[in-house]
Amino acid sequence: xxxxxxxxxxxxxxxxxxxxxxxxxLAGIQQSLQDMLRHLARGMGPxxxxxxxxxxxLPSDALAAQGLISVSATVYRVQSIPGSGRxxxxxxxxxxxxxxxxTSSLPWVHPFEGFAAFKRAxxxxxxxxxxxxxxxxxxxKA
Length: 142
Fold this sequence. Notes:
Blueprint lengths: L6 H7 L2 H42 L2 H6 L2 E4 L2 E8 L4 E6 L4 E5 L7 E4 L3 H6 L3 H15 L4
Antiparallel strand pairs: 1-2, 2-3, 3-4, 4-5
């Protein structure tokens, strides 16, 4: 007997009763995994929200020291782009939102994939104000 090179070959090698048992068992395991995943997902939303609420309570200097800003109880990551004078704004889980340039009349100079949701949440004005303060601290003008 030669070794199996795929799961399909293995399943095809089983007789009808073995195949029915194996596939039924596999379906039960898959259902259990999906149930666990749903259960975990329900718990992660409140956990992320609680973490965001905690971070939003920190003073802006403490957030800034961690590379974060808070806008309407939502925490965003800020990263300086060396040599450009720009800041990169991302969600807390690192989804890029936009490049920000405080010297431009339109400060959101390079929107990324997360920008549409960011605008819908109406956080652009609050983030702009927080980034102005961030930029002043970074440049030693605060």
